[in-house]
Amino acid sequence: MSENKFEAWMRLAIEAANESGTAYGAVIVNQEGNVVAKRGNTVKPDHDATCHAEMNALRTTHKISKSASLEGYTLITTVEPCSMCLAASLWSQIGTIVFGAGVEDVLNAGGDQIALPSEKLNQSSPKPLKLEGGVLHNECVELVNQHYNK
Ligand SMILES: [Zn+2]
Predict the structure, then answer these.
(1) Which of 43, 58, 72, 84 lies 20 to 30 Å from 49 when distance is taken between CA atoms?
(2) What pLDDT is stored for residue 114 in this prediction?
(3) Low pLDDT (below 50) residues in the chain
(4) Residue-averaged pLDDT of the chain
């Protein structure tokens, strides 16, 4: 998979973030590279603290694929996944997570984020997934800064 493809998917994730009025957007693509889910953070409208963009995208993909296993799928998210979203991704057996801004970027912007590096939790799993950060990093940090009015 080329970096260009990751960037193209990240632009869709950024679009999902903007559509949700938050800094958080996520896209899931299947083995063929087709976008299966494109979701933003809906914690406020859904009155549900678990409705992070990644959780929403995972739920949509599970529903569409009618499978509890998302092996071979790739999750692209504007911000490094929090512990909840990473754990859910590990349980779903998703193969790869690509993210833009890091946890430290959210903290620097004044946002709330559980300050646990995703790789640390990932390596605690019996089956770690592939984590790749920094895709369209500047655009994603800009999104985060805009959201937190920095
Ligand atoms: Zn999360």
Answers:
(1) 72
(2) 87
(3) 1
(4) 95
